[in-house]
Amino acid sequence: MLNLKKELGTLNMPWEKEYGYAQAVKNGDTLWISGQLGHDKEGNLAVGMESQFEKTYENIQILLDNFGMNADDIVEEVIYVTDMASAFQARKRIGTAFYPNPQRVASSIVEVTGLALPGQMVEIKIVAKK
Predict the structure, then answer these.
(1) In what order do the strands lie in the sheet with 24-27?
(2) How many Å apart are CA 58 and CA 113, to the nearest integer?
(3) By the 8 A CB rule, do 81 and 92 touch?
(4) Which of 54, 48, 62 is nearest to 120 (CA)?
């Protein structure tokens, strides 16, 4: 049976239909944001770890905005990266710019051998609650 309480969010990327998933799903007061990448509106990846972090958080902000939420509503993030050393430094700088108070977010960072797209260095999954 279809859950009519669910609201779906999109960034209108071709891979949403190709792989069959929603960029974001809100049910009640909780929003789950699928792993976000550091791409522009045409789907082109930014170059470098810091640039990908910046674009990833920009895409997260777009999805939060669509549901009337902001970074302070985020309760958890899981970060997947291909290079822990450079990612850790980038997250320290970019994360403190994105979050009003980074210590109010449960955060995990995991190094992986590869991500979905060639050249992709970071992916961030979010849970937010109003």
Answers:
(1) 7-9, 24-27, 30-36, 122-129, 74-81, 106-111
(2) 24
(3) no
(4) 48
What residues have CB less than 8 Å from 35, skipping those under 6 apart? Answer: 80, 116, 123, 124, 125
One digit per residue, pLDDT tens: the chain, 130 residues? Answer: 566 689 999 999 999 999 899 999 999 999 999 999 999 999 999 999 999 999 999 999 999 999 999 999 999 999 999 999 999 999 999 999 999 888 899 999 999 999 999 999 999 999 999 9
| DSSP per position, 32-95 | EEEEE-SB-TTSPBPSSHHHHHHHHHHHHHHHHHHTT--GGGEEEEEEEES-HHHHHHHHHHHH
CATH fold of 7-129 reads 60s Ribosomal Protein L30; Chain: A; (3.30.1330)
Q: Which amino acid is at 75?
A: V
